[in-house]
Specification:
Blueprint (H helix, E strand, L loop, with lengths): L2 H19 L8 E3 L16 E3 L6 E5 L4 E5 L4 H8 L4 E3 L10 H6 L7 H4 L6 E7 L5 E4 L6 H6 L9 E11 L3 E9 L2 H11 L6 E8 L2 E10 L14 H4 L5 E5 H5 L18 H7 L6 H14 L1 H8 L3 E12 L3 H12 L4 E7 L17 E13 L7 H12 L3 E2 L9 H7 L2 H11 L8 H5 L4
Parallel strand pairs: 1-2
Antiparallel strand pairs: 3-4, 4-8, 5-8, 6-7, 6-8, 9-11, 9-12, 10-11, 10-14, 13-15, 13-16, 14-15
C-alpha cells in the first residue's frame, strides 16, 4: 500500500470509529459541510453532524486506464487543479468550484461533456461508502455491494457517505475552441443539439435568451489558439454568447466559465455592474460568494419583504430538470408560457447505458435527454397558493416523462415521489444499509426538509 493509500485508510478508519462511537437518534445523522450547493433550507435538526472535512485529498490516478481515486470531500476545483497539469480531467466536471466529488455522486452532477459521458455517477467505477452504523463497504458494479453502487446516486447521504471514489477521466488539451450557433425557434435548436450530440465535439451546451434567441455552444480541445479570452473578472461569459461567433478559453477557464457569475445569477446582487465588479475584485466574483449572500437573503427575507411591500408575491424557482429530447421543445414552450424565467441553461445528457441502471434517478425513456436549468424568482399578484410555480414545473416534468433534480425545493406527494424516484428499490437499500434508520429517509430529507 502506497503512502497516499495508507493515509487515506487512516483517515477513513478514524471517521468510521468516530461514527461507531457516536450516539445518534433515529434520522438524526447528517453531514457537516463548510459549503453547500443545496438550495433547500433544512428545518432545524438537533441530530449529530458528521465532520468528514479531512477527507479531501486526491489519492492516485491511472491516466492510461482512465481513472482517478479521490476522497469524497474534495472539491472539483481541487481535483481539476490536480489533474489538468497531468493532461486529463474528470469525464464530467460540474459547473461550480465548490461542488464536492462525493456530493456530486450522492446528488446529480452534469456539465457540457454529459451528452457523451452522462452524469457524474455514470463515470464512477467504485465508491467506498461509510454506512450510517460506522461500517465501511467498497461497492462496484461487479461486487456484492453493486446494489449500493447503483443506489447511491440521488440518495443524498441517506444511505451513507462517500469516503473515496474512483472517477472516470478523459485526456485534455491546453485550450478549448468554443463556437456559438444562434437559432430562432425551439424545434430547430433542439434538432441541432441532437445532431451535434452525434458529432465530434468535446463539449455541448446552450442558453435560451428568449423565444427567438437560442444559442447552442460546441467546444473542442485544441493545443494552440490565436487568442485567449478571460471571463474571470470584468468580462462576463454568458454575454459573450450573444456577441461573438467563436472564442478560445484556457481549459480551466472553460471548465469554470459559469462560476464567476454563477451562470448569470450575479446580476441579482448587482455584481454585473462594472463598478461593483471592480470593488469586489476577482477574489469575490464566484459562486461561493453569491451562495453566501443567497443564504443571508434566505435567512433575513430581504427580497421577499421588498416584494410584499410592493404588493407582489415572490416565489423562488430554482430547478434543474431532465426531459427526453423529443419533448424538449414542448417543455421549453411551457417554461416560456407559464414560468417566464430567462435565461435558461440547456445541457444535453446521454441516457442510461445497458447494465448500468440507477434506480433512484432513472433515465431510461430516451437515448438523449435535455437538462434545463432555470434559477430565479417569479413574482405574481395576488398571492397564489404556496409553491404554485414549483408544482407546475413538477407536474409538467412528470407528464413529459422527465425527472427533476432534488438539490432544491421539492413538493411531491409521497405517491408521486415513490413513482419518480424508485422508492421500492430505495426501501430495500435502506433496510440493508441503514436498518436502524440513523439517517433521514430520502423523502423526509428532500421534500419535508428534515
Amino acid at each position: 500500500m502506497d503512502t497516499e493509500a495508507q493515509a487515506h485508510a487512516q483517515r477513513a478508519a478514524q471517521a468510521a470509529a468516530s461514527l461507531r462511537a457516536a450516539t445518534v437518534n433515529a434520522g438524526g445523522l447528517a453531514l457537516r459541510k463548510p459549503t453547500s450547493n443545496l438550495f433547500r433550507d433544512p428545518r432545524k435538526n438537533p441530530g449529530r453532524r458528521l465532520d468528514l472535512s479531512g477527507l479531501d485529498h486526491v489519492l492516485h490516478a491511472d491516466a492510461a486506464a482512465g481513472w482517478v481515486d479521490v476522497e469524497g470531500m474534495t472539491t472539483y476545483q481541487q481535483l481539476v487543479a490536480w489533474t489538468l497539469p497531468r493532461g486529463f480531467m474528470p469525464a464530467v466536471v460540474p459547473q461550480l468550484k465548490t461542488i464536492t466529488v462525493g456530493g456530486a455522486a450522492a446528488g446529480v452532477g452534469i456539465e457540457a461533456t454529459s451528452f457523451r459521458h452522462g452524469l457524474v455517477h455514470d463515470t464512477l467505477r467504485e465508491i467506498e461508502v461509510l454506512l450510517p452504523d460506522g461500517e465501511t463497504v467498497v461497492c462496484s458494479p461487479e461486487n456484492e455491494h453493486r446494489d449500493l453502487f447503483f443506489g447511491f446516486p440521488n440518495s443524498y447521504g441517506t444511505l451513507g457517505y462517500a469516503l473515496r471514489l474512483r472517477v472516470g477521466t478523459l485526456a485534455t488539451q491546453p485550450m478549448v475552441h468554443v463556437e456559438h450557433h444562434v437559432y430562432e425557434d425551439g424545434p430547430a435548436f433542439f434538432e441541432a443539439i441532437g445532431t451535434q450530440s452525434r458529432g465530434d465535439a468535446d463539449f455541448l451546451d446552450g442558453v435560451v435568451f428568449g423565444p427567438h434567441e437560442l444559442v447552442m455552444s460546441t467546444g473542442r480541445f485544441v493545443r494552440d489558439a490565436p487568442w485567449r479570452s478571460d471571463y474571470t473578472f470584468e468580462n462576463i461569459y454568458y454575454l459573450s454568447l450573444r456577441s461573438r461567433a467563436d472564442d478560445y478559453l484556457a481549459t480551466p477557464d472553460y471548465l469554470w466559465r459559469w462560476d464567476t457569475d454563477w451562470f448569470w445569477c450575479s446580476r441579482n446582487f448587482g455584481a454585473q455592474h462594472p463598478l461593483v465588479r471592480r470593488l469586489l475584485g476577482r477574489k469575490h466574483l464566484n459562486s461561493r460568494t453569491y451562495t453566501r449572500w443567497m443564504r443571508l437573503n434566505s435567512r433575513w427575507q430581504v427580497t421577499q419583504r421588498i416584494a410584499r411591500w410592493r404588493g407582489r408575491w415572490r416565489e423562488s424557482v430554482i430547478q434543474d430538470v431532465d426531459i427526453p429530447l423529443a419533448r424538449a421543445a414542448e417543455f421549453l414552450g411551457f417554461l416560456q408560457r407559464d414560468i417566464g424565467i430567462l435565461p435558461v441553461w440547456v445541457c444535453p445528457l446521454r441516457g442510461e447505458l445497458p447494465g448500468r441502471r440507477f434506480p433512484l434517478y432513472r433515465l431510461d425513456a430516451a437515448p438523449l435527454y435535455v437538462n434545463f436549468g432555470f434559477w430565479d424568482a417569479v413574482e405574481s399578484a395576488p398571492a397564489l397558493q404556496p409553491a404554485h410555480f414549483n408544482r407546475l414545473v413538477e407536474r409538467e416534468v412528470m407528464r413529459l416523462g422527465g425527472i427533476k433534480s432534488l438539490y432544491s425545493d421539492s413538493f411531491f406527494t409521497p405517491e408521486e415521489f415513490a413513482r419518480a424516484y424508485g422508492q421500492a428499490e430505495y426501501e430495500s437499500l435502506k433496510a440493508r444499509y441503514d436498518p436502524q434508520g440513523r439517517t433521514p429517509h430520502l423523502y423526509d430529507k428532500c421534500v419535508r426538509r428534515v
